[in-house]
Amino acid sequence: MDCPIKKQCGSCQYIGMDYSKQLSIKKEKCEKLFPHQRVHDVAGMQNPYFYRNKVIVAFNQKYEYGLYEETSHRIVPMKACLLHDEQTHLVLTQLQKMLKKYRVSIYDENRNRGFLRHVLIRRAVTTNQTLVVLVGREAVMKGSKNFCQELVKACPSVQSVVLNINNRQTSIVLSKQEKILYGKGFIVDKLCGLTFKISAQSFYQINHEQCTYLYHQVLSLLDLHKNDVILDTYCGIGTIGMFLAQYVDTVIGVELNHEAYKDAINNAKMNKIHNIHFVHDDATHFMVELAKQKQKIDCVIMDPPRAGSTQAFIESIKVLQPRQVIYVSCDPSTQARDLKMFNKIGYKSRDVYPVDMFPHTNHIESLISLSRVS
Ligand SMILES: C[S@@+](CC[C@H](N)C(=O)[O-])C[C@H]1O[C@@H](n2cnc3c(N)ncnc32)[C@H](O)[C@@H]1O
Fold this sequence. Notes:
nine-stranded mixed sheet; methyltransferase; seven-stranded mixed sheet; Rossmann fold; 23S rRNA (Uracil(1939)-C(5))-methyltransferase RlmD; 9 helices; transferase; alpha/beta
């Protein structure tokens, strides 16, 4: 399939390339990063299109919406994209008409004037719910009540509209300040048999099908016992830990983002999972404190952001001595760096399991299981 915007946004380096070729390129990349491990075939998708459940677009002064051109802030107008689903485009097209009709001014970053900076759309694919986040420069959006009513009437999948107020001159899209304009401020999705509330600022894996595969792969690599205490570090809204809670005695989830932490607590309540507890903390700080207390921990799941984990986190593993560590990564190069530190403290991994979470892009998700060697 041809990219409608001719790859100008720079996200899909591999679009147009045979999919099996993409998977073998990704496998080769992992083999270079993990020369001492057996790298398995990359787990791909049956239909590797329209998989993204989150998009952030900007509008230009002509009310065209699009993604930024690679390494610039020039907007590449788009009517479609091979990664986003049809509903996302329906909502964006409707917003385009309405922003014009309601004369919502578009932010001009050179003059630091205008209201609307970005629009973030988040989709819950199993429930067909959509969350719309309008990122504006001010806390008041004139006519927002009528605006939301008209939007919801035209696009019934929209369950909530949130105004994120960002008046800083920065390229960071979302600020911490937000106001619910319509609905409850979150959408609900189903994943691995559980129900999850997802709010605007929380992390949620962008590819539902591959995320389901990934979590089952985590489960199949784990050797869990009924009386185990396990940690889900960098836990987001609690998805992995809640999925594993049924197999163990206790799960402790650790997350730095406050919105995600609150979602995680609500998600556990909603799913009536009573053996999971969440801590709002930096994962390294939490691990170092736990190591000081010499807590009994059987398994650790870690799923850090692209930057990977820290030396102090890994050194606390040396003290806690869990039987197993499962390391999920969205950047195998930092995972390979961290693996060297794990080897130094006596934890080894034989296999690498790459998952194609981001088809057509050069990003790879990868999974390793580390065990203590005597
Ligand atoms: C790649 S996501 C993984 C989330 C979750 N495991 C999942 O599958 O949805 C990484 C998470 O780590 C959180 N995070 C980032 N830095 C952190 C830190 N220093 N300590 C704890 N959590 C952190 C982010 O907010 C995000 O929710």
